[in-house]
Amino acid sequence: MTDQDRLIEMIMDEFKGLARHPRPSHHEKAVSDYLVNRLHALGVTDVIQDDVYNVIANVPATAGYEKAPLTLIQGHMDMVCVAKPGYPFDPLTSEIKLIREGNILHADHTSLGADDGAGVASALILLQLGVEHGPLRIIFTTDEETSMTGATHLDSRYIQDLDYIINVDSEELDVICMGSAGSCHTRFTRIINWGETADTMALHLQTHGFRGGHSGATIHQGKGNAIQAMAEALLDLRNAGIDYRLSSINGGDASNAIPADCDAIIVISPDNEGKVREVLHAWSEKFHRMFHGIEDQAELLIQPDEVPQRVFSASDTEMLVDLLCMLHSGIYVMNQTYANLPELSANIGTIQTTEEAVSFEYLPRSGEDDRLQELLQKLPLFAKLTGFAYEQGNAEPAWTVNTESKLAPIYEKAFEKITGRKPRTEAIHGGLETGRFYHLNPSADIISVGPNTHAIHSADESVELDSIAIMIQVIAETLKALK
Ligand SMILES: [Zn+2]
């Protein structure tokens, strides 16, 4: 048996252990207890389970490494549990059934949990390999996949004394992730002054078929935003001197998704129908020139609709369109270290009309906390100008790229030694637990790595077993070099 084969057997064993403990986010007690026992079984005596079920273990240095820097190896124990339609699967009680096909590991009709079982398994296996290392801390967090409860509630003292952090929750073997974005949920709401209108024609407008996508991963691709596009079309109507009132506007699925659809009902005078269609047609042509090759499937549909009982006041209609047009949706600034990496962006994600109010979500992200705060402090000004109420959640901190990292070149060298090729360094515009760690300890030198996983968060999730084995070898080599 080669080293690689032996490692893959060990990986399979750890995955089997994890698979027996259902671990959707917010239901981690069982897997947390299992991990405490597993660490004890591997001879680790200093193991702590905190009140949100994070598991924290301290592992003493091997002989000769007592003075080496303190290094954290960290992953999250929860997983996204999904099954194929019709497959009987209860995420709270069902085991994950593993299926190995050569080098590929996947589950039977469900997600696998390689995200982040691979990270957890790697840390456990490193303890079994007899590799040389300095003082180590191992942390398995909870609820990374929904609200990062584990990382947020983790006692800061487990982070503040660290020199190096290796987060094992990335998705590509050849990539060293060097940074992630912070973000903040915000909401703009305006109480509607409902009124009547003498106009007798209603049109249902739909911005439809936009590409959409994750606002962290794809905001730099220059896509259209179906909600903002609707507002821009409505602005063109106003600028053409056409009087109209909104009676509803709804669109988008989530604050962190670029909306693909938006529906609005407007009421106009029947005399203006021809002109409305003409202006909206011109708007569509302009849109397709601007988004040529990007949003070729997007369209603005116009259909007659039942005339609603009541409509927004003229000023509600005007102020909503103003605000949706004024708030930039897309990239504000690009990062200057990494190509295609946004530094500051924002997304209008959803909009709803209720009985009382119209409200929408706006989600700014940044790779640097001050930049995020700079934008956030301007948002209430837009709200004030347009008569909207503004609410803001807690900002998730960024993990800002450290161009002076000592850890990244050491990992790079170890990677080259094991694989014979150079890894790439990248940073992402999404959020990671490392943002929390960086916030608690900005002097910690952090990288995030991972094996080759595919279709994570879906029932087609899979992982390349040899890529986990290689990653473990590279981390082992890195620990040896951190002296
Ligand atoms: Zn993950």
Describe, in plain words, how this protein is organized in 3D.
With 483 residues, this protein is α+β, with helices and mostly antiparallel strands. It has 2 domains: 3-180 and 399-481, Aminopeptidase; 183-392, Alpha-Beta Plaits (2-Layer Sandwich). It has 13 helices and 26 strands. It has helices at residues 3-19, 29-41, 114-126, 149-153, 157-160, 226-239, 273-290, 314-326, 369-376, 379-386, 407-419, 433-440, 465-481, and strands at residues 46-49, 55-59, 71-76, 98-101, 104-107, 136-141, 164-168, 175-177, 182-183, 186-191, 194-195, 201-208, 213-214, 245-251, 257-258, 262-268, 299-305, 311-312, 330-334, 342-353, 357-366, 389-392, 424-426, 445-449, 453-454, 462-464. The strands form 7 sheets. It has a 6-stranded mixed β-sheet with strand order 1-2-6-3-7-24, sandwiched between helices. Helix 6 packs across helix 7, helix 6 crosses helix 8 and helix 11 (407-419) packs across helix 13 (465-481). The longest helix is centred in the middle third of the chain and has 18 residues, at 273-290. The radius of gyration is 26 Å and the shape is elongated. The chain starts with a helix and ends with a helix. 46% of the residues are buried. The model has no long low-confidence stretch (mean pLDDT 96). Bound molecules: zinc ion (ZN). Zinc ion (ZN) binds at residues 76, 115-116, 144, 169. Zinc ion binds at residues 76, 115-116, 144, 169.
